[in-house]
Design brief:
Strand content: 5-15%
Low-confidence stretches: 230-247
Strand order of the largest sheet: 6-5-4-7
Number of helices: 11
Mean pLDDT: 81
Largest sheet: 4 strands, mixed
Order of helices and strands: HHHHHEHEHEEHEEEEEEHHH
Shape: globular
Structural class: alpha/beta
Helix content: 40-55%
Radius of gyration: 20 Å
Number of strands: 10
């Protein structure tokens, strides 16, 4: 890692950039309701017109997801496996208490997304930024089951305690489904095996290493599972970033 790379990848820069992204994305999205009355009064729009605008916004949000995935892949990120989610929970500095909302049609609504985020924020209040946190949502994960069930999404986790997830590994939902309880936690696409960096996609196909990363054992062509609609040659993996742990 060069000196210039080390400078911009400092914790301060990452936290500031992440905060700005969340402020712009979630702040604008969750603030629309505040403008319903003044916009309706000024422009003569009814609730139906305003609701249509929000619906279009949701559609655009969905359409942009493949591009968000391309950006994540460009910088070397991948979904974890269920075993990795367990390990992340066990090694987290803070374990939030899961707070499910009543099941029903509102599970996919912006109202539930906002309410659940408020519950998470209440538990995170006073915690240091940058520390590993678990227990806030279910994880989208990589699983061999997706090979037999194309067009589905695999979810797992939301632990109450180590080894006790609320959500066992499931592929019941379609890839377009999302509700307030789902989260996307990306991990590095580079692992260190025997002191050497290695692509996690290759490691998941190695019978000696795969069981460490996944309870399902070898994952055939994990890259294709992560990119079910991407065609063409597989890109070269991103250069690994190794951080030496102080003695």
């Amino acid at each position: 890692m060069t000196a210039s790379t080390a400078n911009w990848r400092s914790p301060t820069v990452v936290l500031v950039c992440g905060g700005l992204i969340l402020t712009l994305a979630m702040g604008i999205r969750h603030g629309f309701g505040l403008f319903l009355q003044p916009i309706s009064s000024e422009l003569g729009w009814g609730r139906e017109t305003f609701a249509l605008a929000i619906a279009v916004q949701n559609l655009v949000w969905g359409v942009t997801q493949p591009f968000a995935g391309m950006i994540a892949d460009r910088f070397g990120s991948v979904l974890p496996t269920a075993r990795m989610v367990d390990a992340i929970y066990e090694q987290s500095a803070h374990h939030l208490k899961p707070s499910p909302l009543p099941a029903g049609p509102l599970m996919t609504s912006n109202l539930y997304l906002l309410r659940h985020q408020q519950r998470i924020d209440e538990q995170r209040s006073g915690l240091l930024l940058g520390e590993l946190i678990s227990g806030h949502k279910k994880d989208l994960v990589l699983s061999n089951r997706l090979r037999q069930l194309p067009g589905r999404v695999a979810i797992y986790g939301w632990h109450r305690a180590p080894g006790h997830p609320i959500q066992p590994l499931s592929t019941v939902h379609g890839a377009r489904y999302v509700d307030y309880s789902h989260g996307v936690r990306l991990v590095s696409a580079t692992v260190v095996v025997g002191g050497r960096p290695r692509s996690i996609y290759d490691a998941l196909q190695d019978s000696r290493v795969a069981p460490i990363l996944s309870r399902e054992g070898v994952t055939r062509d994990a890259w294709a599972l992560m990119h079910p609609r991407v065609f063409g040659p597989r890109p070269a993996p991103a250069a690994p970033v190794l951080v030496a742990r102080p003695e």
